[in-house]
Amino acid sequence: MRKLRIFVFPVVALTLLAACGGGDDEATPAPGSQATGTVTVFNAMEPEEVTALQKVVDEMINNKVQYKATIEGSSQFEEQVKIRVQGGNPPEIAMYPQPGAVLELAKQGRAVALEDMGFKIEDLEKAFGKYFMSLGAYNGKHYGMPTNINLKSMIWYPKKAFDAKGYKVPTTFTELIALSDQIVRDGASPWCVGFESGSATGWPATDWMEDIMLRTAGADTYDKWVNHQIPFNDPAVVKAGEQFGRILFTPNYVLGGAANTTSINFGDAVGPMFTNPPRCYFNRQANFIASFFPKTAVAGVDYDWFPFPKMDLPGDAALFAGELSVVFKDTPAVRDFLTRFSGTEVQCAQGKSIDTSRISPNVNVGAECYANKQLADASKVLTAALKANTARFDASDLMPSAVGSGSFWTGMVKYVQGGRNSLAGVLSDIEKSWPAA
Questions:
Q1: Residue 120, Cβ neighbours under 10 Å: how many?
Q2: Are 285 and 204 in contact (CB under 8 A)?
Q3: Where do the H-state alpha helices sit in 229-372?
Q4: What's the CA angle centered on 277, arms 272 and 282, to 5 degrees?
Q5: How much is the pTM?
Q6: Phi-psi map region of 257: left, alpha, beta (phi>0 left; psi -120 to 50 alpha)
Q7: Are residues 270 and 415 in the same domain?
Q8: What is the mean predicted confidence (pLDDT) over 204-225?
Q9: Is 33 helix (H, G, I), strand (E, B) or coil?
Q10: CA–CA distance, 260 with 253 (Å, rounded to integer)
Q11: In a domain, 183, yes or no
């Protein structure tokens, strides 16, 4: 069977999000800055994120060069990018959330290696860390440029209303369940949940499974799960699914009921958290969800977050994801765009925009670059977990795409809609879908 290699985080190299003092290691823009033409950057962002990122690109890149870079997003990204690539009409650059898909493109000979474009890998490893660069490595070359990273192990809450109720931030899963019960008794639903995301519907539910796996089975078992060294219906995975079910299927826990979550967009799910009074109090989602909050909401006042609590194992764990930008058309403009977009100045500008809420994988981007304390704190949590080797990349994004962005996504939809008793069948079906060697 095909196995995706899981790389262990080197403690020294991976202070991915730490603020770096001293000199600026950002690469000098290539001579291609005089290039003309267009660069299309295709990605899985929602429209609001696309608009915000395009604004940064216009101000920081398009206004300084002779070519024009356009950010193009689609909720059908996984499906549409395959159609465009296989049809011979790929974008110049695609931002893949799934390293597994990047490796498949490299094996197929469809992507352009960064080495072949003139990039020095040792310089990129200094900027992004060896681990992140390694996720796009195949057969001695690198096919993915890290351009974003996000912390997923975050639970958001309406701080003002939360504090007014006298609620306390839980530090263990047991405390989280007890607080959820209290919120139900107080007449609200504890959880705001939405799993709809176009052709990618189900991915937010896989994040729940991954966060719980890290906290109940540990990083080593998590790695075995990703590599298919244990089956998808292994007892450790079953346990994670059952714990997820405690949130999903406890009466009144999920606003609107679990079965309806697959028709609620993940970005829309946070809306009821900001009504007066809130109709729900918790939303487990990555740092970028803040871009979906009401524009009038003030970070640290109207909302805040806390790390996904400890479960069976001691210590803190962190689930993270990000994007690897893959080149399909090598041009001077593309080379210049990637150099600028991944560099300190443009990455810092993205961090300052609350509408993008993007955290940079570039180690030269410090805490002062972020729009608020919430984003800066997220970078610190992730850095600490990376140093402790308890952070792991999103499992579904590392698995073969037939599973990670296929049967795992759809299986979680079946579980959500089918209830507790459907778990065993769902996990067995995902196990059967794993590609043969």
A1: 11
A2: yes
A3: 235-249, 332-341, 344-352
A4: 50
A5: 0.76
A6: left
A7: yes
A8: 96
A9: helix
A10: 13
A11: yes
Q: How many Cβ atoms from other residues are within 10 Å of residue 250's Cβ?
A: 16
pLDDT at 330: 97
What pLDDT is attached to residue 12? Answer: 28
Average confidence score pLDDT of the chain? 89
79 and 146, same domain (yes or no): yes
Q: The tokens of 79 are what?
A: 């499906």
Token couple for 231: 């089956």
The amino acid occupying position 302 is D
Residue 7 lies in a domain: no
* Beta strands at 304-307 and 154-157: parallel, antiparallel or unpaired: antiparallel
73's tokens: 């997003």
Q: Is the pLDDT confidence value at 337 over 90?
A: yes
CB-side exposure of 334: number of CA atoms within 13 Å? 22
Please give the residue range of the domain that contains residue 68: 31-151+320-388
Which positions ≥6 away from 173 have C-beta within 8 Å? 215, 243, 309, 310, 311
What is the token pair recorded at 423?
């778990």
CA gap 92, 101 in Å, rounded: 17
Residues in Cβ contact with 239 at an 8 Å cutoff, skipping those fewer than 6 apart = 216, 217
Mean pLDDT value of segment 412-428: 98
Q: How many CA atoms lie within 13 A of 193 on its CB side?
A: 28
Average pLDDT over residues 155-174: 98
Give the count of domains, the chain.
Answer: 2
Q: What is the CATH number of the domain that holds 358?
A: 3.40.190.10
pLDDT at 198 over 80: yes
Residue 63 falls inside a structural domain:
yes
Residue 23 lies in a domain: no
Supply the pLDDT for residue 387.
67
Distances (CA, A) of 37 to 195, 317, 329: 38, 45, 12
Q: Are residues 346 and 211 in the same domain?
A: no
Under DSSP, is residue 169 helix (H, G, I), strand (E, B) or coil?
coil
CA–CA distance, 219 with 225 (Å, rounded to integer): 10
Contacts of 88 (CB under 8 A, 6+ apart): none
With DSSP H G I counted as helix, E B as strand and the rest as coil, what are the percentages for the chain, rounded to 5? 45, 15, 40
Is 158 in the same domain as 144?
no
Distance CA 244, CA 252 (A): 15
In which band, very low, low, confident or very high, does the pLDDT at 381 lie, cut at 50, 70 and 90? confident
The pair of structure tokens assigned to 385 is 């977990």
